[in-house]
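#struct-help
A.M.: can someone run this one for me? Single chain, 159 residues.
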Amino acid sequence: MRRERRLVYRVLRLWKEMAQGRRFPRRDQIEPSMLGEDWANCLVIAVRSPVRPLHFVAVGDNLLAAHGPSSALAGMLLARTPQVLSERRCLLIEARAILDGIGIQYRSALYPLSDDGVAIDHVLGAANYRPLHEEEEPIERLIRKKWIEFGGLSTVHTF
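D.P.: on it. Structure tokens below:
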């Protein structure tokens, strides 16, 4: 089987496999070892807590950087989490941004997780980026936004 090039689709494949006929996989089904080297570009956000409404419970090394585009990218995923909770499906985004003064193009995704199959209690995130080439305009813009439900693509917005 050919290895998928894009991080967000490799993680999506695992998310679908772990769902095993349920609408969402459970948090305990997603282990860093299952994602291998991709775990460095992943994080987990807790969304139901009596003390803190949204917070990171795990962050891969490539998104843990104290400074630079990686740490800002983790914050952008956290900021989009309410959309995933509202829509109750996966969100994939490709965009350009200027983070910490560096122009980048990134792909990111958020995948809902649920212990009981109904209430979303965690969200798995994945993101990677590349610096913009000299000829690419360093302007912030959304390139593509996709909502994905278990069973396939549901809506595509291309900007």
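A.M.: thanks! The radius of gyration is 15 Å.
D.P.: also worth noting: The longest strand covers residues 102-113.
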